[in-house]
Amino acid sequence: MTIEARIRELGNRHRVLDETIQREFGHPSVDDLQVRKLKRQKLRIKEEITSLEARTG
């Protein structure tokens, strides 16, 4: 897989996590633990995207 393809894949996962987090806030009783877990995953993905983008330069 090329770096560009990996960045696109990670970008899609990042977007899906963002949508999932937004849906969680739409529930009457927000699961704070779940939201924190999703946000950590989203941050890790963003960091990986940034790292890959720096390599392509």
Automatic annotation (TrEMBL):
Pfam families per record: DUF465 (PF04325)
UniProt-listed InterPro entries: DUF465, DUF465_sf
Domain of life: Bacteria
Protein name in UniProt: DUF465 domain-containing protein
Organism: Brevundimonas aurifodinae
